[in-house]
Amino acid sequence: MIEALFNYFNQEYVIRALVDVGSMTLFFVGFFGLLTQRHLLKIFMSISVMEIAIFLFFIGSIFNKTYTAPILGDGHTAFVTMNDPIPHAMILTAIVIGMAVFALGVSFAIEYYKLTGKTDINDINEMREK
Amino acid sequence: MNFKRDIATRTYSGFAIAALLILTILNILLQIGPPDIQRAGDQLLAMSADDGVANAVTSVVVYFRGFDTLGEIAVLFIAALGIGLMLSAHNRTTHEESNYILKKASRMLFPMIMLFGVYVMIYGHLSPGGGFQGGVIVASGVLLLLISREEFEVPHSVISALETFAGISYVLIGLIGLLVVDKFLGNFLPNNISQMGMLFSGGVIPLIYIVVGIKVGSEMSMIVQNLIQRSDDD
Amino acid sequence: MSSIYFVALPLLFGFATPLLQKFGKNGVAYASTGMQVGLFLLALYLMATSFWAVEIISINPPLGISFVLNRASLLFVFLFTLLMMLFSFYYLGLRKTDPFPSENKFFILINMVLASSIGLVLSSDLFNIYVFFEIAGISAYILSAYHKTPKALEAGLKYLLTGMLASVFLVFGIMLVYIHLGTLNLAVVSQTFHTLPFNMKMLISLLLFIGFGFKVEIFPLNFWVTDVYEGSSSLINSLFSAIVVKAYLFVFFHIIYLAMPASDFAPFLLMTGAVSMLAAEIIALKQTNLKRVFAYSSLGQVGLIFAVLSLENSAAVAAGFFIVIAHSVAKMMIFLSITSIEREHKSVDIATLKELNSPFLTVMIVLSMLSLLGIPLLAGFVGKFLALKSFAMSGEFVVLGVIIVASLIESIYYFKITGNLFEKGERRRRLSLSKSQKSVFVTLAVLLVVLGTLPWLFSGYIQDASLSMVDTESYVNLLMGGLK
Amino acid sequence: MTGIIILFSFLAVILVAFMSIIQKSLPDAIILFMGVGLGAVVLFFVFQAPDVALTEAVIGSGISTLIFLMALKHLKAEHEL
Predict the structure, then answer these.
(1) What separation in angstroms does the CA of A90 have from each of A98, A102, B206, C395?
(2) Inside any domain, residue A13
(3) What is the DSSP letter of C23?
(4) Residue span of the structural domain in which A43 resides
(5) Which of B:86-115 have CB within 8 Å of C?
(6) CB-based contact C229:C158 (threshold 8 Å)
(7) Inter-chain residue contact A85 with B25, CB threshold 8 Å
(8) With contact defined as beta carbons under 8 Å apart, do B112 and B129 qualify?
(9) How confident is the model at residue D78 (pLDDT cuts 50, 70, 90)?
(10) pLDDT score at C97
(11) Do B129 and D74 touch (CB under 8 A)?
(12) Among A130, A119, A100, CA closest to A43
């Protein structure tokens, strides 16, 4: 019974579907937060969740169950049957960039709060159109 | 016009819009799965055999797509600069006395965290990890000191010197590559493939990753310190 | 000479600032300006010598990243270096009396803006474009929040939030490209993009459109732009309007021409551009803040450029390039003038212009507004004329009509501003400009007049540029086959 | 085994992310957000990307959480949203 369940979930197309549905649901959660939350930190949090979702989607789509991580060692002596390293490098870059922008945003939010005492995105309207 | 809506309407409409978008995207993604093709990464894997680096991700990050990494360093540099600019004018906040356990534990943990960070940084071309991860681990060691000792402060001149040194040497390594092998960030050091797996292998790659590690470590330490707000920027 | 210096030298400058600081108070300022002059001369030299050149970084394309220099990208690089150089000269005049706080950081940021704009234009790799997109973005966020007033911080926050959202969608699109085509190189994408299933093509186009749409300030996605322009200092607005947006526009259409030429997307882009122009000009009528007025005017011009470039033929592209040059020069002039006015009068309301006592600035503002409007004998006319001609040639009479209506609306608020300029009000004391500032204005004005009266001097080069912009075959061959 | 791990990790990540987004109290939301990062680390590890997993661990759930907590300290946010 459990064996059968395990085998079912190990199939190629099931893993694909899991990755697609799972990461898009996570993306949805982030997007939902972006549209409904009002606190600035919550908004940054929502965008971070969206970022994590697309990173998971990318790595998961490229991932091949039968291949290994792209590192020699543990008996691997040649660069064959390994997962594609480019997505890993791209995500590495994107994670660091995302964190940098996010830290900057938080520092803007702190400074804005110090000056005006506001953290609600709806209240940020110094320049309301007349 | 009044855009103020009550929370329930806002939640439901947000839910509906987000769901619509995601369902559309998901529909297309499920319809058209990732094709089974030869990607650029597979060709790069074949090429990494020639450059004497055991971790293929490192050789992609630092060498094949090294220019992205330079850009990434620039982003981090600008972010640290911006955070310093934003949070510099504040007075030092008074720091609560940290408790005894934290003080004693930090004394033991700090050298270990630093050692681990430096290890991750230097062995980036042989095992998972590298400059970014190592740099951030080092910065977290600094963070431990910052929260456990009220009198501790990141020495600004040292950090600034390290950062400048690392940044300049990264660009200069690139320019030397341009002059020697006519490719920006090209590998101009001799690298012997038989040395693969040794600490000194892979030509210019470990060198760059260590430089990246120093740069990331110092930038992150500055960011952390600025956020804890005991900053005394120039 | 290699095109990599355009990016490497500003980065080197940024990293080396603590060292340069040791050479006295003016060390950083002079080093920055000197470097920009050097880059301008390099661009001039490259314009004279090279036609198609590819600069390899690390490994050969299509696997590695490379910079492609052709007439089109070189034209933009030249424009950016020229404008940035003039901007620095203006700032050198300003800093004697009224320098920015923590000036070194300001110099680093403007050089990063320059490097990333040039990188966007030159790069031939999608993920590399994303990295430059982020560098340009993050420097721009900090520049808009630079003065740390509530308004500036609000501008910075709005810019940053939209930028973060844009980059999420952009990176999603790039990932889909890599998953389905197995490459990031624009040349390979150009060859294989049409093999994708229709739905996937639409999804990728949509994601890239959302990603870039925020940054090129196109209609449904430009709600944040005017707030950012109002909140940040007008000195910095001149950079946004003249350089950053133009780089994003170039790279957006570069990708469109290469990957999805003559797609189902083109009419949509055309209409978006036209609607964008009309909407911006109508809203601009009600504004009373000078920065806001010219922000809307920028949105309008961007809409026009967007519409022209989406016609995808070389005559239209030439028209688009003419408008880009004329608009960048004119907007630089206007925003620099507003900077001087703001420093003197501490206000940017339209009514402030009544108190302006500076015949020199008055002439400059009127000249640039006439050029933006498209009055003959000024640079704007050539571009607008060619644009209207190419709309007529392609049979897009609706768009043609919309643009004429929008230009008429535009003229109304320009006349309002001009009226305020010449109205007899209570004049303040004379506004003084330093020599370097005056010479910057004169250079820009001469550029406008020369472009307008003697367009044939440049039209040859711009024709070449537009041809090489639409000549995707040479681009692909250069990256794929031209190398050992 | 792989499939089951992926299934449960995704479920956990989504649940934690949703809870963190709708959470009324900010400190709770931040701690839950750290859980999102940790779940992502497990997933990256299963997807044979140890480098990314290490980066996500130190940056995504380490430094990001720290930044949030520091921001919270400065914002002294009203805890009822």
Answers:
(1) 12, 18, 19, 44
(2) yes
(3) G
(4) 2-63+79-123
(5) 86, 88-89
(6) no
(7) no
(8) no
(9) very low
(10) 82
(11) no
(12) A119
Residues forming a β-bridge with C289:
C349
Neighbors of chain D with 3 or more C-beta pairs under 8 Å: A, B
* Number of independent structural domains in chain D: 1
Bond into C62 cis (ω within 30) = yes
Output the pLDDT for position D40. Answer: 93
Under 8 Å between Cβ of A45 and D29: yes
Residues of C in contact with B37 (CB under 8 A): 181-182
Q: Which residue of B has its CA nearest to D51?
A: B128
Helices (H), ranges, C285-425: 290-309, 314-345, 359-373, 379-393, 397-422
Is the CB of D58 less than 8 angstroms away from the CB of B229? no
Closest of C362, C372, C437, C433 to residue C353, by C-alpha: C362
> Which chain D residues have a beta carbon less than 8 Å from that of A34?
none
Whether B54 and chain D come into contact, CB under 8 Å, resolves to no
Residues near C264 by beta carbon (within 8 Å), at least 6 away in sequence: none
> What tens digit of pLDDT does each residue of C393-402 get?
888 888 899 9
Most confident residue range from C4-13, C49-58, C413-422: C4-13
C-beta of residue D25 within 8 angstroms of C-beta of residue A46:
no
Is B59 in contact with C58 (CB distance < 8 Å)? no
The CATH number that applies at residue A14 is: 1.10.287.3510
For residue A20, is it within any domain? yes
B143 reaches D (C-beta below 8 A)? yes
Q: Tens digits of per-residue pLDDT, A40-89? A: 889 999 999 999 999 999 999 988 888 888 888 767 777 778 888 899 99
Determine whether the interchain pair B56/A85 forms a contact, defined as Cβ–Cβ distance below 8 Å.
yes
Q: Do the Cβ atoms of A58 and C141 come within 8 Å?
A: no
Residue A32 belongs to some domain of the structure: yes
The per-residue pLDDT of chain C, averaged, comes to 88
Specify the amino acid at residue A100.
A
> Pick from C17, C59, C135: which is nearest to B75 by CB?
C135
Task: Tell me whether residue C150 is exposed, middle or buried, using C-beta atoms within 10 angstroms of its C-beta: 0 to 12, 13 to 18, 19 or more.
Answer: middle
From the list D21, D44, D70, which residue is nearest A59 (CB)? Answer: D44
Structural domain includes residue A74: no
Give the model's pLDDT for residue D81.
Answer: 44
Q: What is the pLDDT of residues C177-223, one digit of tens each?
A: 999 998 888 888 988 888 889 889 889 999 999 999 999 888 888 88
Give how many domains chain A has, as a whole number: 1
Model confidence at C424: pLDDT above 90: no
ipTM: 0.93
CB of A42 within 8 Å of any CB in chain D? yes
3-class DSSP state of C57:
strand
| A-D contacts (CB, under 8 Å) | 153
Residue range C112-138: average pLDDT? 93
Counting runs of H as helices and runs of E as strands, what totals does chain B give?
A: 8, 0
CA distance B129 to chain C (A): 21
**What is the DSSP-derived secondary structure letter of residue C432?**
P
A129: alpha, beta or left, given left = phi > 0 and alpha = psi -120 to 50? beta
Query: Would you say residue D67 lies in a domain?
Result: yes
Q: What amino acid is encoded at A88 in this protein?
A: H
Q: Give D76's pLDDT tier (boundaries 50, 70, 90).
A: low
Residues 6+ apart with CB under 8 A from B157: none
Give B148-164 pLDDT, tens digit per residue.
877 777 788 888 899 99
Determine which of B48, B132, B219, B222 to mutate to test the interface with D (most D C-beta atoms within 10 Å): B132
Residue D31 counted as domain residue:
yes
CA dist B38 and C83 (Å) reads 44
Q: Which of B61, B121, B227, B231 is best to mutate for the D interface (most D CBs within 10 A)?
A: B227
Q: How far apart are CA C69 and CA B71, in angstroms?
A: 20
Q: Using a CB–CB cutoff of 8 Å, tell me whether B218 touches chain A.
A: no
